Amino acid sequence: MAVAPLSQQEIEDRLTELPGWSLDGDRLARAYRLDSHFAATALVVHIARIQDELDHHSDLTLGYHTVTLTVNTHSVGGAVTTLDFGLARRVEDIAPGHGAH
Fold first, then answer.
1. Which of 6, 7, 18, 57 has its CA 20 to 30 A from that of 75?
2. Which helix (H) or strand (E) holds 59?
3. How far is CA 61 from CA 6, 8, 58, in A?
4. How many CB atoms lie within 10 A of CB 75?
5. pLDDT tens digits, residue range 54-97?
6. Is the pTM of this model over 0.90?
């Protein structure tokens, strides 16, 4: 099934269902602040497993107590699609409920 870029309105509507996520240029973005560097590292491993399951990968940055993700769909020219929101939802389901600001 082909995936198509979402309109600006569709992106804004879907973002209301994912608190902490935002549009950063042409990518969905989210940062998580965790209690320790080890917890942040473990989150990266869990996110990597989800990405492999979905065959859809974000850019992940591991910092000191933080994990940052940015994602878009390269196969449609780097636009935001339903694939990106699917990944964001799966990550949100396993991640701590508080984000870094």
1. 18
2. strand 59-63
3. 25, 26, 10
4. 11
5. 999 999 999 999 999 999 999 999 999 999 999 999 999 999 86
6. yes
